[in-house]
Design a protein that fits this description.
The structure holds two protein chains of two kinds. By secondary structure, chain A is α+β, with helices and mostly antiparallel strands. Chain A contains 22 helices and 23 strands. In chain A, the strands form five sheets. In chain A, strands 1, 2, 3, 4, 5, 6 and 7 form a seven-stranded mixed β-sheet that branches. In chain A, strands 9-16-17-19-23 form a five-stranded mixed beta barrel. Chain B has ten helices and 24 strands. In chain B, strands 7, 14, 15, 16, 17, 18, 19, 20, 21 and 24 form a ten-stranded mixed β-sheet that branches. A six-stranded antiparallel β-sheet of chain B has the order 3-2-1-4-5-6. A four-stranded antiparallel β-sheet of chain B has the order 12-11-10-13, with no helix packed on it. The chains are: A alpha+beta, B alpha+beta. At the A-B interface, helix 13, strand 1, strand 2, strand 3 and helix 15 of A face strand 1, strand 2, strand 3, helix 2 and helix 4 of B.
């Protein structure tokens, strides 16, 4: 975009014959490749570009206004108060020294822009950008005026004396003032571009932004502003109307957003919030996005003013519904939770985060300050935050769904659950429970680097549990699945169709034999392999816990950075991916961008058994030598994002499931997880399942109750000798992964297929 | 800055009445209305790797609305208290009411009640500045640095408020503060590690230096661990070590993580306790009560429908004696009186004790004194990742972490590698020889529990970790 702009401007220059005249813009443009040669970063180029665009656009005025044939508006001498004021000023103040000083002020208007832009670039990038955009916008608004209605300055037809010319005439004398004035005059624009006054516009913007940067700068910038405004009149360069138009133009561009005091702002906010359109907008489909856009501006602006190195803002609207039937009792609840989370980095060393559910402009500003206060506190204790780069993304993404689950009536869900749980009513059954979960998460993300991302995610889940009581105590059978998708999941799951089978199995388990204790070959069902991946691979590859940030609660990891690329984590049959892209499937870990604006990616954690990758964030990636995060920062609603699993999946192997059973002379099949536990470094685990079957001579034998197994993670995965193929591979959803303090709950996805493990420690759990 | 700087001028009760009026206005066609307004603000200074890197301030309010008509009920909850959002939430509930099935246990809403007053709000906790709290964290980090260790943990404070009212005239409110300081110091990728924690309602109760020193002392001791052969060991369990384990007293995985100590689940046969009333389920020296009025307890004195909570003995000298009950159970079963342990309605799960107090007989000692009484065994400073293996015996599995020490003749001899256990909670409570004073748990498990540390026989360890 900026490059195309540059080309257009160069052509413009050429067309109007100003290409080879002296031009600061062109000089800077020529210097641009030099910065690349000197090894300066792309970031520098990116930030310099609007500046060059400004210089060139301003210079373009010279050519275009002067080359147009439209008749300029020429005011007659002696008419109007504007004229009267100029005449009065010139006759009252005229003196050669004042003329020199005023010429200096007059010539300052562009050097001021350059100097203050450099100052802002060093101090506050967000303000710098806003400043330049405002300047460019001013120049173009003026260009439109000049093109449509060229207007001559007062001296042009003798309304006033052109005192600037008297100074220019003295060029060559050694006066310091006149030297500086001469430099200023080099970038003077065309004489027929008096209305509106860019002198006025630029100088007002200059003082506004410098004061915004630091209040004490007002001591310098306000006198300069007054000086420049006065000089334009005194030197006969502008009518008062030009000045007024210039100032008004600026206010119009900036004022409603940035240039009002807190009291006025509060009044405007209240007015806005009480207005019908605002309410309608909140209720409208894309309200989260438009509200997010509005609030993020205030947040990022506040963060920039207070010198945050980086800031991001998230507005998250979550609507979820749970419909339950337990035995004969129904319950439903719909929950709507809207809030904003603000994260700031101060002095590249302190992070602060604050969230709020009061999403109005005033409170967002206050919450941003809360985050900043915490960040300043953190900066004192000092962290080594290094933040890897991520391209700027501006995008909207809606997750795919066939049937909106929240549009399906609660009554329909109740009927389905009553049907399913009704079919589980049998002698010996003590608990029947069915639940349907529908969730919509709309989230708007914006950061100080310019990313603006809106995502609209729909998730659906369901579970069915039946518990039977018999000689061996309580036995449970269940199914559950959670996906990124719609109510079509319920059609696929067919809860009522599965209910009788589950019921029969639960009753049979109360009569079944227990699982033997010892060692055996084990085949695990796909869901159990999924949970095994979650606990023994997904958690230990979270880079924050590897680096010790989770040591107090979630724990650490045995997968330390020195093992990366070296450790044989599993057998050659074991390849585990971290994949948040939609191509991987409709998982609870599927999205377009993570919660710090990093695009969804696919990376290997384990490739043919070798440990090769971590789940990372922008703040941690550099610590294992990566230059980009793989996008694993996720937050429970609008809370603080932390490193989370996306979809961490075992890649399918090449065994048909039936062949796998046939190939197993003696073993145990374990199906559907019941209990799970693993140590804080993710070595020592123990799982038990709801049901099992003996495998004898390649076929399934009698059912056994409470089969369990345990082991040490790398030993276990190295004992994997077969993974079933795509036909039996399922992307499971785990809706309840807990991590962080205060604890956050997150949904993750785990693709898995039934797999075989040799010589595993087994035991009977019940 | 402190938490108080964003506290609203208007009280939650004032806000509650305003909101309730709106709900009434929009809830056309509903015979009965109940509204519960909750507010939580928290300030959490979270640190890891000797860096204060995840400081968080959090603030949320929710309005939960229950509507009833005939025997049908619906509940919606919203995080926005603007009129337009309340309208949306009420309309959604009205909509659900039309298609909801009849609830066989529905009872008309409860009228005005009297609640004993408890004072659980401590201004000091709210007023404490983030700078002061960061100072405590800074001290822990300095101490860790001096000893070549890494400090990780959290110092959090929070204010919880609840205001409930309904069309039958009920009004109930609660305001309380809480907090905790949890600290790990470790080195060598956690191969050397120590843990300490302290909970409080009033932050002036917190002795941050003691927490730091305990974590440091344990970390210093806990390095170059040797292995012990898994098997049965006598153990001392630190009072702060086992919140998650004790949670399984009252919740079972067998029916999908639902509570057990309630009349409804007991009578329906869903509880692991069903049919065991009067049986000895724990040791003679253990009494289990639910007592929201205990001076160390937290939380409101009313239940999910506003009924006043009463003190309730669940297990008396080891015998199963009582169950949490509610108006619904009293209505369903002739021989039952309500005890104020209903969850928010509609509630198909059943009642749950929310303020457990585990009482041990025979005086209380400190953890160190219990260690002094241990001839040979293990001191467990933290148990981790506990899950149910079998519900009837309440067999649980889990791991030790952050400091497991071999004790001989009443003295800590050496640290040992982490162990996995498979242990029946009921059996463990039959083998207790000594107790410490109870401490508050962190409300991590959703139940405010006062739990002692113990000295117990024959704790069953089944395997060992490589670290």
């Amino acid at each position: 975009m900026p490059a195309g702009y540059g080309v257009v401007l160069i052509l413009w220059y050429a067309y109007y014959g100003v290409l080879f005249s002296f031009s600061l813009g062109l000089v800077f443009l020529a210097l641009l490749p030099l910065t690349l040669l000197l090894g300066s970063s792309a970031q520098f180029v990116k930030e310099l570009t609007p500046f060059i665009v400004l210089l060139m656009s301003y210079e373009a005025l010279q050519g275009v206004a002067g080359s147009l044939t439209l008749a300029p508006v020429i005011h007659q001498a002696g008419s109007g108060t504007s004229y009267g004021i100029i005449e009065a000023v010139q006759s009252a103040f005229l003196s050669p020294d004042l003329t020199d000083v005023m010429s200096l002020f007059y010539g300052l208007h562009f050097p001021l822009v350059i100097g203050s832009a450099i100052l802002l670039w060093y101090s506050n990038r967000v303000l710098y950008q806003r400043y330049l955009y405002s300047l460019v916008a001013c120049s173009y608004v003026s260009l439109v005026f000049y093109t449509l209605a060229p207007s001559a300055p007062p001296w042009y037809n003798g309304v006033a004396s052109n005192l600037l010319a008297t100074t220019s005439g003295k060029i060559g004398s050694s006066s310091l003032f006149s030297e500086l004035a001469r430099i200023g005059s080099l970038i003077e624009s065309d004489k027929l571009v008096a209305f509106p006054s860019l002198h006025a516009a630029y100088v007002v913007l200059f003082s506004y932004f410098t004061i915004k940067l630091k209040r004490t700068y007002a001591l310098v910038s306000i006198p300069i502003m007054v000086g420049v405004l006065f000089s334009t009149t005194y030197l006969g360069q502008h009518y008062i109307t030009d000045l007024v138009a210039g100032v008004v133009g600026v206010s119009d561009l900036r004022a409603h957003r940035y240039a009002v005091g807190p009291r006025e702002r509060l009044r405007q906010v209240k007015l806005l919030e009480s207005s019908k359109t605002y309410r309608a907008r909140i209720g409208a489909v894309n309200s989260t996005k438009s509200l997010g856009e509005e609030l993020s501006r205030v947040c990022l602006e506040t963060a920039a003013q207070e010198n945050a190195t980086y800031a991001d803002f998230r507005l998250v609207n979550t609507v979820s519904e749970v419909v339950s039937v337990i035995n004969e009792n129904p319950a439903s609840e719909e929950l709507n939770d809207l809030g904003a989370g603000i994260r700031v980095l101060y002095k590249e060393s302190g992070w602060g985060f604050a969230d709020t559910d009061e999403v109005n402009l005033e409170n967002i500003r206050e919450t941003t300050r809360k985050a900043l206060a915490l960040a300043r506190g953190s900066a004192k204790i000092g962290s080594k935050a290094s933040f890897v780069k991520e391209p700027v993304h501006v995008d909207d993404w809606v997750s795919p769904k066939k049937k909106d689950p929240l549009a399906v009536s609660t009554g329909t869900k109740y009927s389905l659950l009553h049907d399913a749980t009704g079919r589980m009513k049998e002698e010996g059954i003590v608990a029947r429970r069915g639940q349907i979960f529908s969730t919509r998460i709309e989230k708007y993300f914006a950061n100080s680097e310019g990313s603006k991302i809106f995502q609209d995610l729909t998730q659906t889940g369901a579970s069915l549990i039946v518990a039977a009581k018999g000689p061996s105590g309580i036995q449970r059978r269940s199914i559950q699945q959670y996906v990124l998708g719609g109510y079509e999941l319920l059609d696929e799951l067919d809860l009522p169709g599965q209910a009788p089978t589950l019921t029969k199995e639960a009753l049979a388990l109360t009569q079944a034999e227990g699982c033997p204790t010892g060692k055996s070959d084990v085949i695990l069902s796909a869901d159990q392999v999924g949970l095994q991946v979650h606990e023994s691979c997904g958690h230990p590859i979270e880079l924050d816990r590897v680096l010790g940030y989770e040591a107090n609660f979630a724990g650490r990891s045995f997968l330390t950075p020195d093992q990366l690329g070296k450790l044989q984590y599993g057998s050659e049959h074991v390849s585990i991916v971290m994949d948040a892209t939609l191509a991987h499937g409709h998982g609870l870990g599927t999205f377009a961008y993570d919660d710090e604006g990093v695009q969804a990616q696919r990376k290997y954690a384990v490739k043919n058994g070798k440990f090769v990758g971590y789940l990372m964030s922008r703040g941690t990636a550099s610590q294992v030598g990566e230059t980009r995060s793989n996008g694993c920062m996720r937050a429970d609603t609008y809370k603080l994002p932390i490193i989370r699993m996306t979809n961490v999946s075992l890649e399918p192997g090449d065994w048909d499931y039936d062949e796998l059973i046939e190939d197993t002379p003696d073993g145990i099949l374990m199906d559907t997880n019941y209990g799970w536990s693993i140590d804080q470094k993710r070595y020592n685990f123990q799982f038990n399942c709801e049901k099992g079957y003996r495998i004898k001579n390649g076929s399934l034998g009698e059912m056994i109750r409470g089969p369990g197994y345990s082991g040490i993670t790398p030993e276990f995965w190295n004992a994997c000798d077969a993974v079933s193929n795509q036909k039996s591979w399922v992307l499971w959803g785990t809706p309840n992964c807990g991590k962080g303090q205060p604890q956050q709950v997150m949904g993750t996805g785990h693709g898995a297929a039934p797999s075989r493990f040799r010589n595993i420690r087994i035991f009977g759990a019940s | 800055m402190s938490q108080s700087s964003t506290q609203k001028q208007t009280s939650l009760a004032q806000q509650g009445h305003r909101v309730f009026d709106m709900v009434r206005k929009f809830a056309k066609g509903a015979q009965e209305i109940e509204a519960t307004l909750t507010s939580t603000t928290g300030e959490f200074l979270r640190f890891g790797n000797n860096e204060l890197g995840q400081s968080q301030f959090t603030k949320s309010r929710t309005l939960s609305i229950r509507l009833a008509s005939g025997k049908k009920q619906a509940r919606t909850t919203t995080g926005r208290l603007d009129e337009s959002f309340i309208q949306k939430a009420v309309e959604k509930a009205v909509d659900q009411l039309k298609t909801a099935p009849e609830d066989p246990d529905y009872l008309p809403m409860l009228g005005r009640q009297k609640y004993p007053t408890v004072n659980r709000y401590h201004e000091r906790t709210v007023e404490e500045s983030a700078e002061t709290k960061a100072g405590h964290v800074g001290h822990a980090i300095d101490l860790a640095r001096k000893n070549k260790l890494l400090a990780s943990g959290i110092l959090g404070t929070s204010v919880d408020e609840v205001f409930m009212l309904n069309t039958a005239g009920l009004e109930a409110d609660y305001k309380g503060t809480g907090g905790y300081f949890s600290l790990t110091m470790d080195a060598d990728n956690g191969n050397q590690t120590g843990f300490a924690m302290s909970t409080f309602a009033d932050i002036s109760e917190l002795d941050p230096k003691q927490v730091s020193e305990t974590a440091l002392e344990r970390a210093r001791l806990n390095k170059a661990q040797s292995e012990v052969t898994p098997g049965k060991f006598d153990v001392v369990i630190d009072p702060n070590a086992w919140s998650e384990m004790l949670f399984f007293f009252i919740v079972s995985a067998s029916t999908g993580f639902s509570p057990d100590f309630g009349v409804r689940q007991y009578r329906e046969g869903r509880s692991y306790l069903s049919g065991r009333m009067g049986e000895k389920i724990l040791g003679d020296n253990v009494t289990l009560v639910d007592d929201v009025y205990h001076p160390l307890q937290t939380g409101p004195t009313f239940d999910g429908e506003g009924y006043p909570k009463s003190k309730l003995t669940l297990v008396d000298d080891g015998l199963l004696k009582g169950l949490a009950s509610s108006r619904i159970s009293a209505h369903r079963y002739d021989d039952v009186n309500p005890t104020g342990h209903e969850l928010p309605l509609p509630n198909p799960l059943g009642e749950a004790p929310t303020n457990l107090v585990i009482q041990g007989k025979g005086g209380t000692k400190t953890t160190d004194e219990l260690v002094g009484e241990l001839d040979k065994g293990l001191l467990l400073t933290r148990l981790w990742y506990i899950r149910e293996v079998e519900p009837r015996t309440k067999t649980l599995t889990g791991m030790t972490r952050d400091g497991t020490f071999l004790v001989e003749n009443g003295e800590i001899k050496r640290p040992v590698k982490n162990l996995r256990f498979n242990q029946s909670l009921l059996d463990l409570f039959k083998n207790i020889d000594g107790f410490t004073e109870p401490v508050r748990n962190t409300s991590f498990t959703g139940t405010a529990m006062l739990q002692p540390g113990i000295l117990a026989r024959d704790f069953n360890f089944t395997s060992v970790s490589p670290f």
